[in-house]
Q: What sequence folds into this?
């Protein structure tokens, strides 16, 4: 699974640390910045309409009465308006969306193949992604057309001539549409869970004739074999002396096998939906000479998410994990880890052949290191392994995992090497993790739906706030562009802040028109100064806009569930908090838009 | 006296502009009005004369281009004034998917009423406007008159001190019109202030204490109804028991005070005549406050 940004602990994220600004402070700054901007623009407009002094008075009145209104918000009024929004949505037959949803599930059932390597991943990501788009779409339509509809039908006249505050109208809409959206999400969540679970369920038979008895010693023996081919795959089977056991997870799930004396009974698929709980560490690289580097080798990908290490050199990827102790090993079998390897081949060899690699455990304090444990890597496969308690050190001494390899501060290092010359392994920080006890997949599914809910609430808030000023179609267009821009948030920030080649927007335009190279310096002079001055203002503006753009791709947690990972609680909390921030900010925006709007125009 | 003033407008003007800020219509020109507590005030004028615009400005639904409107001494854009105000719009601007009960309950909630009060009030109003049988039907099934009635109930939900009625009798049957007029008078007896606009002159004449006549956004006439309709320089006499001779010499008899004088007053014109003459005069000499007294009306007519 790709995790481009670290997920910080909630309070560190909220309050910040020495080297990063907390989300709370950022929110306050953005609110202040935009508030100031709004004041200036508001004053200019008011001054143009009423004159300099009177304009100032109008702005002052508007702001002070806004604070008064804030304290006069009545839950009963907000609730009445929410119920109205629910009834309106109901009357506009939003439930039809559920029908569409069932049709999508039907099509998924017909067309999604279960013969893929990992059908669970395909099913889960398809169903969840479809749900996301469906729900966001309906949130968009409901929110963007609701208030404009009221203006059109003039029903707003009878509402605003009651002691209703503009903020209550906005909040009521947001809450109402959230309620109806939540109800639909709950239905969709239950149905899609059942759907995924049922679609991927299957069973096998044990091929009785192929069962072979194996023995470690005379007392200790078992059976190896394989299952029949069902649902496009078969499993290896491992049974104990009583012929009980399981079909192994060759295909990301298992089946347990019982023996009643004559036949083997294979259970339904277990663990199709997983919620592995990873504990992530910090990654650094060693280059070919064994010198520490922050980044790995770039094998020519645009996307610099993964760094590569060269095979058969000193090169290594080293993760440092903190807070490791015996609680990481609840069943006393060792320390379970997961490792995803991307393989980059410089010569073909035999396609599909595994590339050998090695794992070493090291104590960062004492430098004690275990001997290289070998594994065979296939591209993009999760390699799961339990580091045993008893290991041998490089000095051939017997060592204990927790006593000798974990430092007094609870830190342990895991380094991975590629052993085939000329081949490369690629890793990102999230590719290696200590595996904590699994969480409940049902709960994880619910968490993914919660993240869809967060996105829905944000879209609803944007739609409602904007539609306080403009007509339905315009509000919709605006909301959609806001969302699309959100996807390019990073590009926005890059232009505003990053290493810009060829300058800001105006300078780039100047270069384009004059056909000037990106790198050559602009001759300094009045023109250049003006261009750069405009650019710096534009860049500041772009930066602030980028700060408020919601990054919907970052909100989505579909990838977690699809690749069988638990959605971290910290992320859920962060997203909920961000959602709240958006609702507050957008409600304030909507309030002022509605208040300063001439209702009967 | 000043606290008795419920609505005050000062040089209230409204210019409708299009999207680009170009002037479209000057709907209201420097209107000065005062409406006192406890009176029924009528706004009269032909179609498009600015009656609805005035009401919307008073409600804060429109922002004045110039001047200001004060309601209960507060600015018209202040939400607080709405606590004591009821508004019946010129058409039914209600949620068509709600039924009568839900509609009234919704508006009652907007006044932050507690559930008990709400239930009682909704029930009483539905009965009062005669919609008891249709209380569970959605408003989209309502006839025009029924919509009017539920609109009125909605305007009265908070037992307001000031009620603004935009053409209250339009769409009502004769019985409904009668009831509406009775209701306005009852509200007046309860000490409430009613501002209504209408072009049904008979209705206005029956219920209004004072009227303002607007034409093309200008105030043409503003006074008490009885005063406006009194023809000042004409005297009307009704007498009984006069002989034929006396009747022939009626002027002498009167000058000598020899008959039994039963009634002696000025005749009244109808509001319709006054209205038409003001409009006619305004069209002939635009931009000036009407100078036509009722006397001229009659004189013209005679
Ligand atoms: N939203 C608007 N945009 C532009 N012009 C408008 C608007 N509303 C009203 N007007 C114009 O303002 C003038 C006054 O309209 P208003 O609705 O106040 O008249 P009225 O006296 O209520 O008429 P009626 O008796 O027909 O209801 C008219 O010329 C009308 O065309
Ligand atoms: Mg009108």
A:
């Amino acid at each position: 699974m790709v995790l481009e940004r670290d997920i910080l602990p909630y309070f560190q994220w909220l309050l910040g640390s020495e080297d990063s600004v907390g989300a709370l402070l950022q929110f306050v700054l953005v609110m202040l910045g935009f508030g100031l901007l709004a004041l200036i623009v508001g004053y200019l407009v008011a001054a143009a309409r009423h004159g300099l002094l009177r304009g100032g008075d109008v702005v002052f009145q508007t702001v002070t009465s806004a604070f008064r209104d804030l304290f006069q918000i009545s839950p009963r009024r907000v609730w009445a308006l929410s119920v109205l929004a629910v009834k309106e949505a109901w009357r506009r037959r939003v439930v039809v969306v559920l029908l569409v949803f069932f049709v999508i599930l039907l099509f998924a059932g017909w067309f999604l193949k279960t013969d893929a390597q990992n059908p669970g991943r395909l099913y889960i990501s398809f169903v969840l992604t479809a749900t996301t788009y469906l729900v966001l779409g309906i949130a968009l339509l409901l929110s963007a057309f609701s208030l404009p509809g009221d203006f059109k039908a003039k029903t707003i006249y009878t509402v605003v001539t009651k002691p209703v505050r503009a903020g209550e109208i906005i909040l009521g809409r947001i809450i109402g549409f959230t309620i109806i959206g939540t109800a639909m999400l709950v239905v969709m969540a239950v149905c899609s869970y059942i759907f995924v679970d049922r679609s991927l369920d299957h069973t096998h038979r044990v091929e009785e004739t192929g069962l072979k008895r194996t023995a470690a010693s005379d007392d200790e023996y078992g059976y190896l074999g394989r299952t029949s081919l069902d649902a496009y795959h078969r499993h290896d089977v491992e049974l104990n002396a009583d012929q009980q056991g399981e079909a192994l997870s060759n295909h990301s799930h298992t089946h347990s096998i019982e023996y009643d004396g004559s036949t083997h009974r294979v259970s339904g698929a277990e663990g199709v939906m997983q919620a592995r709980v990873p504990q992530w560490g910090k990654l650094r690289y060693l280059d070919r000479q064994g010198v520490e580097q922050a980044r790995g080798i770039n094998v020519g990908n645009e996307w610099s998410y993964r760094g590569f290490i060269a095979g058969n050199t000193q090169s290594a990827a080293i993760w440092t994990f903190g807070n490791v102790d015996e609680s990481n090993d609840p069943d006393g079998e060792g320390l379970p880890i997961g490792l995803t390897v991307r393989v980059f081949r410089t010569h073909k060899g035999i396609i599909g052949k595994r590339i050998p690699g090695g794992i070493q455990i090291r104590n960062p304090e004492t430098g004690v290191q275990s001997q290289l444990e070998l594994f065979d890597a296939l591209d993009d496969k999760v390699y799961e392994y339990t580091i045993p308690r008893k290991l041998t050190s490089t000095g051939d001494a017997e060592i204990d995992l927790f006593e000798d390899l974990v430092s007094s501060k609870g830190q342990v290092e895991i380094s991975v090497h590629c052993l085939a010359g000329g081949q490369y392994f690629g890793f990102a920080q999230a590719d290696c993790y200590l595996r904590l006890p699994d969480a409940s997949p049902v709960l994880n599914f619910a968490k993914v739906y919660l993240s869809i809910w967060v996105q829905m609430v944000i879209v609803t808030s944007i739609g409602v706030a904007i539609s306080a000023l403009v007509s339905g179609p315009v509000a919709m267009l605006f909301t959609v562009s806001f969302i699309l821009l959100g996807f390019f948030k990073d590009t926005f920030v890059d232009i505003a802040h990053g290493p810009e080649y060829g300058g800001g927007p105006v300078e780039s335009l100047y270069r384009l028109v004059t056909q000037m190279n990106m790198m050559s310096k602009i001759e300094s002079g009045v023109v250049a100064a003006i261009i750069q001055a405009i650019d710096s203002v534009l860049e500041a503006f772009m930066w602030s806009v980028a700060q408020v753009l919601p990054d919907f791709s970052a909100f989505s947690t579909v990838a977690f569930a699809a690749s069988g990972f638990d959605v971290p609680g910290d992320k859920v909390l962060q997203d909920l908090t961000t959602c709240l921030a958006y609702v507050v900010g957008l409600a304030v925006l909507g309030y002022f838009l509605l208040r300063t709007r001439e209702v009967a125009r | 006296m000043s606290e008795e003033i419920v609505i005050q407008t000062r040089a209230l003007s409204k210019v409708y502009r299009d999207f680009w800020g170009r002037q479209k219509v000057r709907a209201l020109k420097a209107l000065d009005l005062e409406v006192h507590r406890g009176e029924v005030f009528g706004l009269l004028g032909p179609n498009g004369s600015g009656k609805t615009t005035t009401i919307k400005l008073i409600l804060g639904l429109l922002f004045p281009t110039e001047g200001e409107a004060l309601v209960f001494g507060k600015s018209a854009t202040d939400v607080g004034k709405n606590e004591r105000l009821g508004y019946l719009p010129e058409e039914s601007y209600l949620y068509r998917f709600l039924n009568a009960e839900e509609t009234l309950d919704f508006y009652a909630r907007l006044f932050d009423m507690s559930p008990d009060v709400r239930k009682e009030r909704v029930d009483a109003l539905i009965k009062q406007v005669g919609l008891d049988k249709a209380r569970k039907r959605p408003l989209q099934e309502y006839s025009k008159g029924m919509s009017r009635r539920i609109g009125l109930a909605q305007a009265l939900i908070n037992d307001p001190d000031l009620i603004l009625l935009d053409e209250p009798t339009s769409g009502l049957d004769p019985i409904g019109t009668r009831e509406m007029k009775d209701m306005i008078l009852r509200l007046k007896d309860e000490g409430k202030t009613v501002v209504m606009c209408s072009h049904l002159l008979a209705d206005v004449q029956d219920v209004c204490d004072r009227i303002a006549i607007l034409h093309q956004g200008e105030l043409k006439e503003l006074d008490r109804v009885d005063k406006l309709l009194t023809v000042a320089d004409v005297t009307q006499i009704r007498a009984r028991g006069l002989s034929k001779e006396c009747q022939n010499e009626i002027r002498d008899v009167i000058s000598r005070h020899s008959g039994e004088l039963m009634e002696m007053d000025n005749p009244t014109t109808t509001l319709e005549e006054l209205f038409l003459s003001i409009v006619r005069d305004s069209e002939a000499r635009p931009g000036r406050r009407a100078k036509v007294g009722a006397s001229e009306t009659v004189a013209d007519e005679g």
Remarks:
- Confidence is low (pLDDT under 50) at residues 292-302 of chain B.
- The first strand of chain B starts at residue 5 and ends at 17.
- Chain B touches chain A at residues 56, 59-63, 78-80, 82-83, 85, 87, 89, 91, 93-98, 102, 106-107, 109-112, 154, 158 (CB under 8 Å).
- Residues 63 and 152 of chain B are 25 Å apart (CA to CA).
